[in-house]
Design a protein that fits this description.
Blueprint (H helix, E strand, L loop, with lengths): L16 E5 L10 E5 L14 H6 L9 H16 L2 H21 L5 E2 L11 E6 L6 H13 L14 E4 L6 H18 L2
Antiparallel strand pairs: 1-2, 3-4, 4-5
Helix pairs in contact: 2-3, 3-5
Length: 191
């Protein structure tokens, strides 16, 4: 798990191992959260990757990235104090719906390559202009977005030239700002 980790409740009893990067929803890069069923502690390889050794040493077998762990602790406190994973799920739904509503009502100006039932509430890729994306329009969109302090919206061409990430720390006000920008950009480029 990575982008969606702690953006919604998960029944951990359904998994033998959960291996989650924290860099998106739980803190800065450099920390991995591993939740492993006790019976699996006996079947894994070298000591660095042997979770039984990690667990037996309070996850301190190697020199840990202290600052990243400290930040993760602060973020976990923030999530807990703001309603936990259930509250993050509600916010994730609200934020993603704001963007998907614009995409879906744009008459094909914004195009999301993911089928509706498979859409992420955390990472929303989309193209601009047509199903394959118009590179000129997408560059205009990105350049103008930077002027409004909206950065890191460039996506990967294979799934859409634009991608917005709505991690837990992204406030509703930030998504409202992006939504207003997208509506304005659409209006400026409608024929």
């Amino acid at each position: 798990m990575s982008s969606n980790f702690l953006s919604r409740p998960v029944d951990i009893s359904k998994f033998g191992v959960i291996f989650a990067g924290t860099q998106n929803n739980v803190g800065s890069a450099g920390v991995t959260v591993v939740i492993i069923r006790d019976d699996l502690l006996k079947v894994l390889p070298p000591s660095v990757l042997e979770f039984k050794v990690q667990a037996g040493n309070n996850s301190l077998y190697n020199t840990p990235p202290y600052v990243s762990i400290y930040i993760m602790g602060m973020v976990l406190d923030w999530i807990k104090n703001n309603g936990g994973a259930a509250a993050m799920e509600k916010l994730s739904f609200i934020k993603s719906q704001m963007i998907y509503e614009i995409i879906d009502n744009s008459q094909g100006f914004y195009v999301c390559p993911a089928e509706r039932q498979n859409r992420s509430r955390v990472n929303i890729p989309f193209g601009i202009g047509n199903a394959k994306g118009d590179e000129v329009l997408e560059k205009q969109f990105l350049d103008k977005a930077v002027k409004f302090n909206m950065i890191s919206l460039k996506g990967h061409r294979s799934v859409g030239g634009i991608c917005t990430s709505l991690y837990n720390a992204v406030r509703i006000e930030d998504v409202e700002k992006l939504a207003a920008f997208m509506k304005n950009f659409l209006e400026m480029h409608q024929l």
